[in-house]
Design a protein that fits this description.
142 residues, 23% helix, alpha+beta, single chain
């Protein structure tokens, strides 16, 4: 059985409050070895712009209601006839005291499809983490 799910989507990136959107690629990945997480790599013209780890459950909840505090915030948005997932990503501090910020808009139906594929690998509520392996990794890193 395949334990990794990949999906590449064209998403809309908005860098700044009043900025226009422009298309970038988002490479979504789920690996059953880390069952609570999704990773997404944003790229444009063959260059990696950013990589983020997201909570799988939070992404699903973000399709129906605002969720998240801190560096990642998600909420549903409607744009005409399209339902989208708005992903706000906060980065490092800027010189003016604010933080770098990017907003990504993804078609909600594409996110739902990706999540269904991940649920076929590990159903929600059936995630398992080997605590001994996790603790061993922590002690060898320090």
């Amino acid at each position: 059985m395949n334990t990794v799910v990949h999906k590449t989507l064209v998403v809309q990136l908005q860098a700044g409050e009043a900025a226009d959107r422009f298309p970038v690629l988002a490479h979504f990945r789920y690996d059953a070895a880390d069952p609570f997480a999704l990773s997404v790599v944003f790229s444009h013209d063959g260059r990696v712009l950013a990589e983020w780890a997201l909570d799988r459950e939070m992404v699903g909840e973000g399709l129906t209601r605002p969720v998240g505090v801190g560096d990642v915030r998600l909420r549903p948005e409607s744009r005409g006839m399209w339902d989208e997932l708005r992903i706000e990503l906060l980065g490092n501090d800027r010189a003016d005291g604010d933080r770098h910020r990017a907003v990504v808009f993804v078609w909600a139906s594409a996110v739902e499809s990706f999540l269904r594929d991940t649920h076929a690998v590990v159903r929600p509520g059936e995630e398992e983490v080997c605590v001994d392996d996790f603790l061993a990794g922590l002690t060898t890193e320090g």
